[in-house]
Amino acid sequence: MIRKLKNIFHLIKAIIANIVYGFPSRRIKVIGITGTDGKTTTSHLIYHILKSCGKKVSVISSIYANIAGEKFDTGFHVTTPDSFQTQKYISSAVNHGDEYFVLETTAHGLDQNRVWGIDYMVSVLTNITHEHIKSVSGYDYFGSYDNYLKSKSLIMRSSKKIILNKDDQSYEGVMQTLKNNITSSLIFTYSLNNKADFMWSESIKTELIGDYNKYNILAAISVANILGIEKDKILKAVSTFKLPKGRFEVINTDKGFTIVIDFAHTINGLNQVLKTVKNNLIYGNGKIIHVFGCAGLRDIAKRPKMGKISAKYSDLIILTEEDFRTEDVCKICAQIGSGIKETGKKYIVIENRNQAINKAVSLAKKDDVIIFTGKGHEQSLCRGNKEHPWDERKAIEHAILK
After folding, report:
1. What angle do CA 67, 82, 124 make, to 5 degrees?
2. Does this model's pTM top 0.85?
3. Close Cβ partners of 24 (under 8 Å, ≥ 6 residues apart)
């Protein structure tokens, strides 16, 4: 009941915001990207392709908003901003003469009506995996995978063209949802393993590694093709794309070991990133040291599963804080550790993230890889009810200099 009332409040707010700013999305081509993983990289890929092709484009992602050539902070732990802020950004882009607007869109933003009134020319659903299902109170925001899938699919009700990942576990469920609710949209697919409208080819050159990045690239290429961008221009732009901050961000040290910083905080995201590190011989034959935690007051069911994934790929695991909020850090780590123990591997707990970083760096030897996951680009750590300034890269660089 409380959730429904809040959603009604957000709907009224969104309606007013659209009226105040004159429904700006009707005067610009909005590209929406949703999914559990890959939203940010795909958003920045699309933005990069369009900019490289001389198009005027703005973007809102979980890292920042770049509106009419000016960067804005979207706030702590925020992907899709408040409806008034979003409409203001779109209106500014329209007034600047931008042709395209790339909008990273969360399931929460969709369910809460924060993006009500936005007309999407194209929407992309990257994947739907386990997230937001069961919290410390026994219930997280969506409560079930089916509810999560339905919320993600809401973006398609206001989309003229829809792009789906044909290889994702959600594909059949999403197609059934579309069949029951949407008839006028055009549906396109991309795939690495199945016949689809857009597939991987040897002509695609990129510096990015890992299959998960191939999916992100295919999603972006699909959008660019549908928008009518020339193929050779798309491929040239893809070949020059650099990952945004906190997405497989690599630091090569003069001590012979490598550091990777990644935002991965979901089961699938963690699996993909660790598998990519493990499978790439460019990192030598050293050990993998993994430092991570799980957010407090969020999906509790994933914690042991993420521990098990870490144990599958890592040689040494250090569990630490990650926005524990009002939960006990040690309790969170114990829940993650229960999955690690199932594999027979050991782990250590260092509650303070800064101290955990220092410990990992002190233990690293030549050819080792230390991977820090969960924080990525974020500029704060939530401890209790307060946000504390945090910069993962700066903390790591300071540790290396010790």
Report:
1. 65
2. yes
3. 87, 90, 91, 93, 94
Which CATH code, of 3.60.15.10, 1.20.1540.10, 3.10.450.50, 3.90.190.20, is assigned to 249-401?
Answer: 3.90.190.20
Amino acid at the residue 324: F
Structure tokens at 101: 């607007």
DSSP string, 342-388: HTT---EE-SSHHHHHHHHHHH--TT-EEEEES-TT--EEEETTEEE
Question: Residue ranges of the domains in the chain?
Answer: 2-239, 249-401
DSSP character at residue 158: G
The torsion angles phi and psi of 364, rounded to 5 degrees, stand at: -70, 140
3-state secondary structure of 396: helix
Q: How far is CA 125 from CA 116, 144, 174, 255, in A?
A: 18, 18, 9, 41
- The CATH code that applies to domain 2-239 is 3.40.1190.10
- The tens digit of pLDDT for each residue in 1-33 reads 666 777 899 899 999 999 999 999 999 999 999
By the 8 A CB rule, do 57 and 100 touch? yes
Q: Which of 134, 163, 164 is nearest to 148 (CA)?
A: 134
Answer positive or negative: Cα dihedral of 221, 223, 228, 229.
negative
Burial of 365 (0-12, 13-18, 19+ CB in 10 A): exposed
Helical axes 171-181 vs 145-153, angle rounded to 10°: 60
Place of tokens 């044909």: 166
pLDDT in tens, 131-173: 545 544 444 567 777 788 888 888 988 899 999 999 999 999 9
